[in-house]
Write a structure and sequence with these properties.
Elements (H helix, E strand, L loop, with lengths): L3 E10 L8 E5 L4 E5 L7 H16 L7 E6 L1 H5 L4 H9 L2 E7 L5 E2 L8 H13 L12 E4 L2 E4 L19 H6 L20 H5 L4 H9 L15 H17 L12
Parallel strand pairs: 1-4
Antiparallel strand pairs: 1-2, 2-3, 3-5, 4-5, 6-7, 7-8
Helix pairs in contact: 1-7, 7-8
Bound molecules: adenosine-5'-triphosphate and magnesium ion (MG).
Length: about 260
């Protein structure tokens, strides 16, 4: 389970970040990048962050630790900036904390990872249909000499259609992935060659454990998915379908 913490101080908004993430301190004395439940994109973005980070860990892609961070109404009250205050007020309750990596640098290609890690990151993004790792938005940090993957809220986009349409594992299984603009494309070798080994780590049991990490209150039932356990099962089914399906999403010979 993800650790459950309480925010003790709102420090500052992050300068980058479309969803206005902020930095907070929590009652474990840690500092976290907070992804707010009240930000425009809603709870599904937080769910995608937890799921993709969980899968990343299974294939040894470094990701910052995650935590559930509770926001108290009092923290919003003491915030002077009106836009931030609105966001904090809308986010009272549980939010996603991403362990802040102090002194990390945004990825600029000057210290690329080895081909092995680059291939695993591209495979992760292809599996989870994460288009958000290009040169215009690398979403990689360099910290302690390693490359860390962040910002997975845009992945698993299929769940945004769930309120109106039943999940379609077949459609997701067949959805292609375009790795041509991936920020690590030129560093990676043949990603397809890695598929069997990486897919073998995502057993039904390990995927279920990842899906179980999503806090219950972030899961939104729909007419087709009546309760949280049905929604969780749907995520596993979607991912299994992609892993077992026609594999047209696996990037072939990514090296330029
Ligand atoms: N764990 C972290 N440690 C240090 N810095 C971080 C961390 N997470 C994010 N950042 C910094 O904050 C920026 C914004 O974070 P992130 O990409 O997760 O937010 P976002 O709102 O989803 O962004 P966008 O939509 O602009 O891609 C990152 O580009 C990075 O510079
Ligand atoms: Mg980002």
């Amino acid at each position: 389970m993800l650790p459950e913490l309480t925010a003790t101080r709102y420090v500052t908004p992050l300068k980058e970040g479309g969803s206005l993430p902020g930095i907070v301190e929590a009652d474990d004395d840690g500092t976290y990048v907070l992804k707010f439940r009240g930000a425009g994109q809603g709870l599904k973005v937080l769910v995608a962050e937890v799921l993709v980070a969980g899968i990343a860990r299974l294939i040894d892609v470094p990701v910052p630790d995650l935590a559930v961070v509770r926001l108290d109404p009092r923290i919003a009250k003491y915030e002077a900036d009106e836009e931030v205050q609105d966001l904090l007020t809308a986010s009272v309750g549980t939010n996603l904390g991403v362990d802040f990596l102090p002194g990390s640098l945004g990825y600029d290609g000057s210290r690329p990872p080895g081909a092995d890690l680059a291939e695993r990151v591209i495979w992760l993004d292809a599996l989870t249909a994460n288009v958000d790792r290009t040169w215009s938005n690398p979403n990689l940090l360099v910290w302690h000499g390693r490359t860390w993957a962040i910002d997975h809220g845009a992945a698993l986009y299929f769940h945004h259609s769930w309120p109106s349409r039943a999940p379609s594992p077949e459609r997701f299984a067949a959805q292609p992935f375009d790795a041509s603009r991936h920020v690590l494309r030129d560093v990676a070798g043949d990603v397809a060659r890695r598929h069997d080994e990486l897919a073998a780590r995502l057993t039904p049991a390990t995927l279920e454990a990842v899906v179980a990490e999503v806090p219950e209150e972030w899961i939104e039932p729909t007419p087709d998915l009546a309760d949280a356990s049905t929604v969780r099962a749907a995520y596993v089914q979607m991912l299994r379908a992609r892993l077992d399906g026609p594999l047209t999403w696996v990037p072939e010979g990514a090296a330029a």
